[in-house]
Design goal:
The protein is mainly α. The protein has one domain: Growth Hormone, Chain: A, CATH 1.20.1250. The chain contains 17 helices and no strands. Helix 2 packs parallel to helix 7. It is globular and about 70 Å long. The two termini are 18 Å apart. The relative contact order is 0.16.
Length: 480
């Protein structure tokens, strides 16, 4: 393996662009899938939420397996590219099917089974792409700050992909076909399919030239299942990893509650029109750009752990504040001219914090790779980033399950038009939404305090590993 060349702008942008595929998928699962199957196709919220949760349970098995498989793959295309190339067409095909179910041929239970199978398959094929694609960051560079810069673009493009689809949904498809029309969501699925395919092929192909410079796995002497399981257990028992994984999981569930309720909150709680929501979505492009620029600056001044704690400390109260104030009667009502501009500003700032936390958390995860390698002798970027991918997918798994159960508990009507829902039901929707976010974000903040890798500690880890490689190389040459 030759020494990696300096990271130049085209590589940063191509690496980042690949996350458009995940952003499109995540936008669909987080914001519209529950709404589509529940409000448009008539599937009970509890069944829709259960289907999405079942898919997440499969993720709990497939994510670490794909990560481990990717870490230990020997091929002329390296460790990551075979998976990235192989995932492109299956991702596009299954995502199209997810949004175009043959409803006329399915009973309610049949629709539940269809959603479950489609959700399981699309999550698996996205895993096949996203884990190897994201993991490359720890191979492209071991620089503490460069990793944050790369992941800033990764997150920015992920959000740009998702927001583009959301804007098209609210501004074009819903206006053209209607909020509760099946054609709206079928068209959304077709366009999303095209975006995902382009992003995967362009990013994987664009990074193809980096293959000779990426890390190669050691030749394993023991392939027994028991040894493989023990290796995975040892790697994932890293205390810094556990702190980060639990924090990311709570944060993702909180985001999942927020996103799965988002369409209900915007259309029924605040009673915004599709055009108004489209302006909110458009404004969030500012959040993606702000976060991508602010996160590297903050972590260059403070350690990543301190940056993450500060960001989430603010988010605990700020995210749910408008809903809590409305429930207390201290916020503008839905007919006030002040409501929309206040919520526009709130959404931009809140999402900026959310994206920044994701960037910093992923950069912290990349630094665990060297910390783990010191004790295990194995570089397992894929296995660690499988945990990040799993936590991110919990947004539409556990979050959707919670949202689906909650909607049935408060008897939220299916196919309801904005302004027609009982005020008590709307109040209960806000009562579940606000406090649950605060509790989940607090648990995320508490978990991340157990992470211990600092800038200086990471630098020491890199130096020790570098000296170890030089020693191994010298020993090899001496014994030739």
């Amino acid at each position: 393996m030759s020494r990696p060349p300096p990271i130049r702008a085209p590589i940063r942008w191509l690496y980042g662009f690949g996350s458009v595929a995940y952003g499109v998928k995540d936008n669909g699962f987080s914001y519209f899938l529950m709404f589509y199957y529940n409000q448009v196709l008539g599937l009970p919220g509890s069944l829709a939420g259960t289907a999405i949760l079942i898919a997440m349970v499969f993720d709990a098995i497939s994510d670490p397996l794909v990560g481990y498989w990717s870490d230990n793959t020997h091929s002329r295309l390296g460790r990551r590219h075979p998976f990235m190339y192989a995932s492109a067409l299956p991702v596009a095909f299954v995502y199209f099917l997810l949004w175009n179910p043959p409803v006329e041929h399915l009973s309610q239970f049949g629709l539940f089974v269809y959603l479950t199978i489609s959700a399981v398959l699309i999550r698996f094929f996205i895993t096949l792409y996203e884990i190897p694609s994201t993991s490359i960051v720890a191979e492209l560079t071991d620089d503490y700050d460069e990793r944050t810069r790369l992941l800033s673009l990764r997150y920015m493009f992920g959000w740009v992909g998702g927001l583009t689809m959301a804007f098209l949904m609210w501004r074009v498809f819903m206006v053209q076909f209607g909020i509760n029309a099946p054609t709206t969501f079928e068209t959304y699925g077709i366009v999303g399919t095209a975006f995902m395919l382009i992003a995967i092929v362009a990013s994987a192909g664009g990074l193809h030239g980096q293959i000779p410079h990426l890390k190669k796995p050691p030749v394993r002497q023991n392939h027994r299942v028991g040894q493989v399981v023990e290796d995975v257990r040892t790697t994932l028992s890293n205390k810094n990893f556990l702190a980060l994984f639990v924090a990311g999981l709570f944060a993702a569930i909180g985001a999942g509650v927020s996103t799965n309720f988002n369409t209900y909150i915007n259309t029924h709680f605040w009673e915004f029109t599709p055009e108004q929501v489209s302006w909110i979505v458009l404004s969030l492009f500012v959040s993606a750009v702000l976060a991508a620029n602010l996160a590297p600056r903050i972590t260059a001044r403070f350690d990543k752990k301190a940056s993450a704690i500060g960001i989430y400390g603010i988010s605990i109260v700020y995210g749910a504040l408008p809903v809590l104030l409305r429930l207390a009667g201290w916020f503008p009502d839905n007919h006030s001219p002040w409501l929309f501009p206040i919520m526009l500003f709130h959404q931009v700032t809140e999402v900026t914090f959310i994206i920044m936390f994701g960037i910093v958390q992923s950069s912290m995860l990349a630094d665990i790779v060297e910390h783990s390698e010191l004790s295990t002798g194995r570089r397992e970027e894929g296995l660690f980033f499988a945990a990040r991918t799993f936590a991110a997918k919990a947004t539409s798994g556990i979050g959707a399950f919670f949202a689906g159960i909650a909607l049935d508990l408060i008897s939220f009507p299916r196919g309801a038009t904005p302004g027609s829902v009982d005020p008590e039901v709307i109040f209960n929707l806000g009562l579940i939404y606000g406090p649950s976010l605060m509790v989940l974000y607090f648990l995320a903040l508490l978990s991340i305090t157990f992470y211990q890798i600092t800038r200086r500690g990471h630098g020491d880890n890199v130096r020790v590993l570098s000296q170890r490689e030089i020693g191994d190389s010298y020993g090899f040459e001496k014994n030739r």
